[in-house]
Amino acid sequence: MYLRTTIKTLNDAFFMALEAIRDNLLRSILTLLGIVIGVFAIIAVMTAIRTLESSINTGLNVFGSDVIFVQKSPVIQMGDHASRRKYWRRPNITYDMALELRDRMLGAEFVSAQDGTGGKTIRFNKESTNPNVGVQGVDEFGLQALNHKLDYGRNFIPEDIEYNRRVVILGTDVIQKLFPFQDPINQTISINGIGFDVIGTLQRKGEMFGQSQDNFVIVPITAYLQYYGSRWTSLGISIKAPDGESFDLTKEEVIDQMRIVRGLGPVDENDFEVTSNDALIDTFGSFTAGIKMFAGAVSVIALVVAGIGIMNIMLVSVSERIKEIGIRKAIGATRNNILFQFLLEAVFLSLIGGVIGVLLGVGAGNMVTLVMKNVAPVIPIDWVFIGLGVCSFIGIVFGIYPAYKAAGLDPIESLRHE
Amino acid sequence: MSLIQVNDLYKIYQMGNTEVRALDGVSVTIEQNEYVSIMGPSGSGKSTLMNLLGCLDTPTSGEFFMDGINVATMGDDELAHIRNKKIGFVFQTFNLLPKSTSLRNVELPLIYNGEIKAHERRDMAIKALTRVNLGDRVSHKPNELSGGQRQRVAVARALVNNPAIILADEPTGNLDSKTGEEIMVLFDELHKQGNTIILVTHEEHIAAHASRVVRLLDGKIAVDEATNRGKK
Predict the structure, then answer these.
(1) What secondary structure does DSSP assign to A142-160, as a single string?
(2) Would you give the distance in Å from CA B42 to the centre of its chain?
(3) Which of A323, A332, A411 sits opposite B109 (nearest CB)?
(4) pTM of structure
(5) In whole angstroms, what is the distance from residue A217 CA to residue A125 CA?
(6) Is residue A63 within 8 Å of residue A145, measured between CB atoms?
(7) Contact state of A412 with B57 under an 8 Å Cβ cutoff
(8) pLDDT at residue A126 greater than cutoff 90
(9) Binary contact (A334, B113; C-beta < 8 A)
(10) Please, are residues A13 and A344 in contact by the beta-carbon 8 Å criterion?
(11) For A412, which residue in chain B has the nearest alpha carbon?
(12) Which chain B residue is nearest to residue A10, measuring alpha carbons?
């Protein structure tokens, strides 16, 4: 019985609050703005980061799973000029080192050497690409190591690598450009003037950050070094652990064996870097954490300011409506009736702002998907609820004092108030 | 049992060092279906008595029984319930919610009653508005109504909860004499239908509508007598 009356009181207070908001529409909208901005900021940033993360987690799979990657300098370099020079001065990783590491890493599923360069022009008959095609040199494990999938034709065989054969596997952009109506297999193309026989084609990878990931060709690493290598060429080595469980152990072993290959003494620092997909995602995560913190801080400030705005407007509203409160009390409103009415008014004001903020924020956050074509739009449900929860909380916190003040008014004096 | 039984009621305000006895030992009994005027010059304590009878205020000392319930010692929320269920107010300045329709204004006491469903509230409010001949002004807001119509909405609001007493404080004070007379005719009808009416006024011809007049002076009852109408 008591519960039913309370629910009814809340229900009636709800409609009274809506009436009050409607009656003071302009003022209500102005008050809402602060809440809208606060919620918008956090929701927009969270949505944007979510879309990026989901794209990273699929798109950043540069290496295959369980693959450890060794190269001279870090994949993502942060730091000043001096630290860059430190990496630069390290000795290059040569093909011989890669072969030696392969001999030493007997437990690994494969050890694969690779390098890449860009800005090449590919020609077939009279057709030619722009001078922006990437060339990757790999061995027979390269497709697996770099997460490429063969569409037609065949992969490299050990003999292709051993004898520096001039064979090539094409990415889909190159195929579209040079072989729009023709099967490329067994045709001969030229890469910067050197002829290669096409033995296979790759499946499409799509775009990441608006950049095509299919504008490249793959050749044997030995041929690559012969024709496109230079004294600055330093290879990357991919090592695949036998399974997920032994990943960490394999990583330790890679470091140990690589130190031997590089001829390092016991006290020397590593002169190479070891990376994996997880490490890349972690790096991205620490980068986004900063943005999240910033957006969080902006939101907190905006919401506190908005809360103070709500308190202010509710105090004005109470003092403007003293007469109304007097009338309501005279005809039987209890303290709680008045308290709920004004409290709910503050909460709804805040929640309406929250809903608008969420809608705008989700919309703005998903603008990212317009730029990056293969990213699906995201609604960060958890943040939507957190945002709305915080709004209700702000409405209660900053609405309680004005509501309390209204509830405590004396009916006789309030009725006399003009 | 009398509807209202007031024994030795005091209301004393402390103004700095001086003590103001707004009510100085008032005893009065009002029966069911009486029509009483309370009169007196300003400062006589008639507003104070009106506030006490309306359960808007509590006395400093004394007994006040309404329908046998001692109201004098009640807390704020209990008083609010008594006001809601037993008393219908009609004010000089109408005191309607300016942005709400007639219907909504009349519904308000029923909302605070807390036990009446929305559609019942609506029916009861329309009935009350029809009783004051405003059945066709249900969705008008106060600023779309004349002074007399506004006061009739206020009367409908006072009636809607079926109160034990209708308490009218200078109900014609803001109306021209013709409209004021119409409102008084309305009160006469309500009285004939069995309602108890207490009328606070300083105008003799308004007070003459009642059957009994209580005159206050300096916080005490000076005269308590039947009017000409009451003697008939």
Answers:
(1) HHHHTT--EEEE----HHH
(2) 18
(3) A332
(4) 0.70
(5) 17
(6) yes
(7) yes
(8) no
(9) no
(10) yes
(11) B56
(12) B114
Q: What is the DSSP letter of A359?
A: H
Helix, strand, coil percentages, rounded to 5, for chain B: 35, 30, 35
Q: Which stretches in chain B have pLDDT values below 70?
A: 232
CA pair distance A336, A314, nearest whole angstrom = 17
On chain B, the residues whose CB falls within 8 A of the CB of A329 are 80, 83
**Are B80 and A327 an interchain contact pair (Cβ–Cβ within 8 Å)?**
no
Min Cα separation B155/chain A (Å): 12
Q: How far is A417 from chain B (nearest CA, A)?
A: 11
Backbone angles phi, psi at A133, to 5 degrees: -90, 135
Segment A83-109 mean pLDDT: 88
Strand ranges for A259-359 from DSSP E: 273-276
Token couple for B157: 């609001």
Asked if A334 lies within 8 A of B91 by C-beta distance, the reply is: no
ipTM: 0.93
Contact (Cβ atoms closer than 8 angstroms) between residue B52 and residue B11: yes
pLDDT tens for residues A338-373? 998 889 888 888 888 899 999 998 888 888 777 665
Give residue limits of the domains in chain A: 2-59+283-416, 91-271
pLDDT tens, position by position, A199-239: 999 998 877 666 778 899 999 999 999 999 888 889 999 99
Please list the residues that pair with A135 across neighbouring strands: A117, A217
Residue in chain A closest to B107 (alpha carbons) equals A331
| Cβ-based neighbour number of residue B165 at 10 Å | 25
User: Does A23 sit within 8 Å of B99, measured CB to CB?
Assistant: yes
User: Which residues of B are less than 8 Å from A23 in CB distance?
Assistant: 99
Q: What amino acid is encoded at A224 in this protein?
A: Y
Which B residues in the span 69-88 are in contact with A, Cβ-Cβ below 8 Å?
Answer: 76-77, 80-81, 83-85
Beta strands in B100-192 (DSSP E): 165-169
Whether residue A328 and residue B99 make contact (CB cut-off 8 A), yes or no, is no
Give the DSSP H or E segment for A35. helix A25-59
Instruction: Name the amino acid, one letter, at B84.
Output: N
Judged by a CB distance cut-off of 8 A, whether residue A5 touches chain B is yes
pLDDT at A58: 61
Distance CA A349, CA A14 (A): 11
The DSSP H or E segment spanning B148 is helix B147-159
* A19 with B99: Cβ contact below 8 A: yes
Report CB contact under 8 Å: B114, A8: yes
Q: Give the N- to C-terminal CA distance of chain B in Å, as an integer.
A: 25
Q: Does A334 touch chain B (CB under 8 A)?
A: yes
* Res. A304 pLDDT band, cuts 50 70 90: confident
Q: Which helix (H) or strand (E) holds B199?
A: strand B196-200
For chain B, positions 11-70, list CB contacts with chain A under 8 A.
51, 54, 56-57
Query: Could you give all domains of chain B from N- to C-terminal order, each with its CATH number?
Result: 34-52+81-231 (3.40.50.300)
Distance CA B137, CA B139 (A): 6
Residues of A in contact with B117 (CB under 8 A): none
Contacts of A336 in chain B (CB under 8 A): 77
Distances (CA, A) of A142 to A63, A76, A219: 10, 21, 10
